[in-house]
Structure prediction request, 710 residues.
Amino acid sequence: MNRLAHSTSPYLLQHADNPVDWWPWTPEAFEEARRRDVPVLLSVGYSSCHWCHVMAHESFEDEATAAVLNEHFVSVKVDREERPDVDAVYMEAVQAATGQGGWPMTVFLTPDAEPFYFGTYFPPEPRHGTPSFRQVLAGVEQAWRERRGEVGEVAARITRDLGERRLGHGAGVLPGEEVPARALLELTREYDARYGGFGGAPKFPPSMVLEFLLRHHARTGSEGALQMVVDTCERMARGGIYDQLGGGFARYAVDREWVVPHFEKMLYDNALLCRVYAHLWRATGSRSALRVAVETAEFMVRELRTEQGAFASALDADSIGPDGRSHEGAYYVWTREQLREVLGERDAELAAALYGVSEEGTFPEGGAGVSVLQLPQDEGVFEADRVASVRERLFAARAGRPAPERDDKVVAAWNGLAIAALAEVGAYADRSDLVEAAVCAADLLVRVHLDGAARLSRTSRDGHAGANAGVLEDYGDVAEGFLALASVTGEGVWLDFAGLLLDHVLVRFADGDGSLYDTASDAERLIRRPQDPTDNAAPSGWTAAAGALLSYAAQTGSAPHREAAERALGVVAALGARVPRFIGWGLAVTEAALDGPREVAVVGADDDPVRGTFHRAALLGTAPGAVVAVGAPARRGAGAEGGDGGSGVELPLLADRSPQGGRTTAYVCRNFTCDAPTTDLERLRTALGVRVDVDGGREGDANGADIKPT
Prediction:
């Protein structure tokens, strides 16, 4: 019986035709294990995971291995992106038992879902001290049959230990000025001054830490914080981790220098980095930073947008190479001979110099002479028209290669991050098409992912919602995206949708002591209710919710939302100075709370062109976490009569505020204190720390620093 055939998960569908008799994560799977008196094999991965594909090919597609699994186990396959709660609970057990984790994750459970043996990837034959998967299966089956009491004791102890873990969260107190200051000091110690970023290989883009450093610079003037962002973004944008032809970032670099990427492209990475580079431009006027932000936004729209208007989760690392076999990075890498075939001898020499394609190659895994494209020197040393022609022709030639597979499920949280990035970059770069893409994705989330009670579904595919309930990161990140749309479009309906989601956070995810859980109070009961405030590849649900609660409170004046945000940020006081790399978004939200955040209302007639200029200035302000409302004059209770950007929903920041002398007027407030209303654009720029040209737009301030070549 094929139980995975109707899944909304591409990862589960990839395993639907395995000879393994897979079950999805359901109560029926564990009931079957109890009925047969066998253990459960839990296998967790995701569609673009390279080693998940390897283990599938070596073991799950193997008839002999499948026969062992089918006879002695109930096998359960889980997509970690659909069920982050299941993944989190058992990954915590794997890391506690082995000191490391990763995917594929392989866990053996009792029929009561209690774990007793752990691992990640197991090879088909013993290698480097690691047993083969068949050996592991034989050992677990024998232990289950002959030492059941011992297995039960181990499972009970592990489950008990997990359940007794308690999280110190700073007593729910808003961190003071000293916390981000100490976090900056610790980050300075861990910073790679030569190549940018933090730590050694493998090196991941530190998106949320960079956002914190930008906000810290804006609030305190710390040049050291800004320099770490400038240098890190420079190195990433010129490295192989950035797609020099098509825009967008790979998941991480396998080396310290950002040269060789792990080639999968994730929606969340690109949404977060798109926003970071846009905010770097906003802070410095760097034309290169804005270029990277726009190209990354265009990549998301071009290659990840689904037919329904939202955004797919990822592109695989692997694709079919010239030899007809699947290889990691085959779609992206080049040899000098391939350059000559596309460009001819003369332009091939230019491309090789421009993109660092050498005879020796920079990607040994791809074979001799295979290179990852980089940008080791400034494009400006070459003739601009030739550079543009070379890039266009290489991009067109690459488009003719077999493309990587796409994981086309829509994850609510990651679409929330993409909505925020596209809305802001579209506003900064005067690209209405990008803003419209953000609106379309938000519409899809409302139509497909929200039910009548404003509860979120975690995923959808082909316009149909999946069965899994949204987790805290979904509510926090989608609310963040809606709040960004409200600021950019002036449409109050997005503020209302954000409020509906955040009401669920307050009622179903919050504890009385200020902490937040990853799953709702009425969610499926696991052996432990997951709760993790630390950021991983994307903001944790805890810090994402804290940021959205803070912004919503600033937009509406809601004291309960502000108080909940401050209580949630107590965890930053506990962790920020010790492990700042793992709570970067929490530190960024803390910067916003310490700064206010500023509340900006721009009020003017719909037909007044000055209102658009003032609105743009407000959006370009570097004040951390500032919220913006724009519209015609409104009155409390006015409803659709005004101040709603045409949506029929009033924006609270506009209430009782009117243009002074009939001219567009800006109101800037924070901490219950407002500056005098102003009709002077320069006063508004100064109040919000605007550092780029409000009227010009795309190219930034003439005094802005470009990202320099290495």
The first strand starts at residue 22 and ends at 23. The radius of gyration is 26 Å. The CA atoms of residues 319 and 325 lie 8 Å apart.
